[in-house]
Amino acid sequence: MTKDSIKPQNNSNRKKHRLFKPKKKRSAEEDAAIQYLQAQYNSILPDQIKTFKDFPLSQKTLKGLKENNFITPTDIQRQAIGYALQGKDILGAAKTGSGKTLAFLIPMLELLFCKKWTRLDGVGAIVISPTRELAYQIYETLRKVGHLHDFSAGLIIGGQNLKFERKRMDQMNILICTPGRLLQHMDENPLFDCSHLQILVLDEADRCLDMGFEATMNAIVENLPPKRQTLLFSATQTKSVKDLARLSLSFPTYVAPHEQAATVTPEFLQQNYIICKIDEKFSILWSFIKNHLKQKVLVFMSTCKQVKYTYEIFCKLRPGVSLLALYGTLHQEKRERIYQEFCRKSNVVLFATDLASRGLDFPRVNWVIQYDCPEDVETYIHRAGRTARGVMGKGDGLLMLLPHEEKIVEDLQKSKIPINQIFVDTSKVMLPLRKIESLLSDNSELKKTAQRAFMSYIKSIYLMKNKDIFNVQLLDTDAFARSIGLIVPPVVKFMYKQNKSATEDKVTEVENDAVEKLITKKGNDEKSDESDLDAVIEPVFKVTETKTKKEVPLFDFHNVIVDSDEQNLFLVKEKNVSIDVVVPPDEDDLPRKKIDTPSNKTAVVKKILDPKVKLNNKVKFGDDGEVVADEKKDIKSDLGKQFIDESVFTLDLEKTRELLEEEDKFDKTRFRERVKAKHKEQKRKLKNKKKEDDGEKDDFGSQSESDGPDLSWLPDPDKLYGPKEDDQTDDTKSDSEYSENNNSPESKVSEDDQEVHRPHKRKQNGDIPQKSIKPRKLRKIEDVSASLSVNEAEALAMQLLKSK
Q1: Pairwise CA distance, residues 580 & 577, whole Å
Q2: What is the CATH number of the domain that holds 78?
Q3: What is the pLDDT of residues 88-104, one digit of tens each?
């Protein structure tokens, strides 16, 4: 290509590329705007705030709020944002769904904006959440509202790539995290530096500060700088001085706009409860879902294994609506996918644990069903708050209680929670129990899941603190197991132990009361006789029989241990007190004696060698049906017979050793006899086999069947062709002479064999195996030569050669 061929290009069609230009430093106008905003912080009056524009906020924050349709602040936002902008520590308590997330995100963004925070300054704000789903929700809200700011934010939760987080930790300005993963970075990541932290936020603060996160939060607070701003928000805020001292709060401001409200739950939340038996809960839940297929339902259960089993069995039963399950043991990616799917769908049922009860903003939830009784009032508030969210949000809540759990209703009403009792129409309750049982019988894994769900629920009730409401002894475990498809209920070992210990405690208490009565009576009247003692003993037996039935042993006053100072009580031991008057009504009421187990090796041997106990009895029967004695167990020696005949059994090791040596001699003799009999039998078999082999030979000593083929089927050539007249006499004569002169077995040949080997007949009868037999003419010449002298024989030979 030459220079002349190059044409000038049209500049209008050329793409315009913007050159890289470094960002300009903040101008003096921006500094002036920051000073103006900070000057207005002290003049904020919550009552005069109508919109977010009334707050002294930056333009970037206001624009982000407007883009996401956040125009009017809620009560908690109106009061908390002003105090937070002034730099005060805050304890925020508000109803669920009242917008607490924005109440701490807006002050956090404004604080870093006024500080002119950059990526090089490190971590400036940390938000701690008790659950991963809530942390993810806070992170998404921060991205929507603060995307116009230049801050970098990171989501630090468990289940994510730790190496990916570790490399970028020094570039983050805002951290949204869970306690465990944050502490892990503090301990292991050298790039993590929070020495310049400006603000710390705890969402659901009461949950972050409870016993479950106590050690983790204490370690986190020790690594944080003491000079910082701290914000605590929750629907059930903690006021514990101990918790506040752990966070180094300095004169915090308590913000609770709904504290004086008529209810602590959302205003448009309709709350109801029902009383049902434990075997009816599963069928009521199934019937409720079948009757609400076009609504969004959230079902709370106590344990993860309950959620897993209910979800799996309902999926197989196919109620006609989408089903989801959210619990803690799922992988993090799956948990996020389920959370997003439930938020997106409108007709769906989500089975979840209390993992989903804290802070999650599920849109348009119609029903919240609390399948299991909540642990306390705070748990109920957080569960019920997943519906009727927002200013005008509406929703319904249903609490399912057992008869002995109805006491929690009084606690709810005392906490200003309006709840009404409703009743279930039993005609509409249905459950395909037979189908569930068949599914469990066909699927062993599903059956194990059901058993785990059963055990986890029983254990959760057992571990509850409030024993007035949660009493595991009042549960009908058999009925509960049948209601979820288990025909045979699993064995609950810890309940059995608890029942046994409770029974023993009752007996001990009754015995102690009887002793106290006896001491008092003896102290008052030293001349009392045996009738006084009987009067005390008799009611004791009546009490034990009615309360403890068969499991309570009778009380024995002879075994009472008292102090030596009480000398009057020794009269009981000196007298021969008879309690024959008190007779149990039945033998079954008496305690069963425990079987004594051997405590050492000697006791084990005694028990095995006890002549009364017969162990390992094995009887053999012969072909005729008679019993065959076992020679191994027969005792041959006189010493052994004497040892067995002894009436008194004593374990003497020396005597036993002698017995074994004597019996060993008989065993060796028996073994030698058995070997001899075996050899004799082998010789007999060999002899019989040799006789059979000899019997197979014919009269001439030849193995006709084994050595050669059977030629008896061939026709007789003399009968077929007829004998030659010339050679008949000579052949007969020569054959007879040949048989007389040759007596060896090899020279004996039958007549049939001689006739078969004739040349003129071999061609007609086919290929017949030939034997080494000389022709007749050759035999005649040999006979003639045998009678001649030497000279005559030489002459004969010369004559024969000439003729050839």
Answers
A1: 9
A2: 3.40.50.300
A3: 999 999 999 899 999 99
